[in-house]
Amino acid sequence: MQEDRDYNVTIRNNIRKLRKKNKMSQEQLAEKIDCCREHITRIENGKLNLGLENFIKIADVFDISLDELAGRK
């Protein structure tokens, strides 16, 4: 579904932007959500879809809502 793909692109771009804005490495973000750096790399490159649990953890790390992370207003 096109809408699903659009959200996936938005989410991974937002994760990368938030991480860089907060001067956080992929390794640091991975540690905060209890996964490996490669997992973050694959998410940001669109090779791995973000599971709900990690989606929530990432939103919590950046103190934003799930809607904000997904690019929804």
Q: What is this entry, summarized?
A:
With 73 residues, the chain is an all-alpha fold. 67% of the residues lie in helices and 0% in strands. It has one domain: Orthogonal Bundle (434 Repressor (Amino-terminal Domain)), CATH 1.10.260.
CATH 2nd-level architecture: Orthogonal Bundle
Q: Number of folding domains?
A: 1
Strand-residue fraction? under 5%
Structural class: mainly alpha
**General shape:** globular
CATH homologous superfamily assignment: lambda repressor-like DNA-binding domains
Query: What characterizes the major β-sheet?
Result: none
Mean pLDDT: 91
What's the alpha carbon Rg, rounded to whole Å? 11 Å
CATH class category label = Mainly Alpha
Distance between the termini: 21 Å
At the fold tier of CATH, the topology name is: 434 Repressor (Amino-terminal Domain)
Instruction: Tell how many strands the DSSP assignment holds.
Output: 0
Number of helices: 5
Low-confidence stretches: none
Instruction: Tell me the series of helices and strands, N- to C-terminal.
Output: HHHHH
Helix content: 55-70%
Structure write-up:
- This protein is mainly α and 73 residues long.
- The protein has a single domain (2-68), classed as lambda repressor-like DNA-binding domains (434 Repressor (Amino-terminal Domain)).
- The chain has five helices and no strands.
- The protein has helices spanning 2-21, 26-32, 37-44, 52-61, 66-69.
- Helix 2 packs across helix 3.
- The radius of gyration is 11 Å and the shape is globular.
- The two termini are 21 Å apart.
- The model has no long low-confidence stretch (mean pLDDT 91).
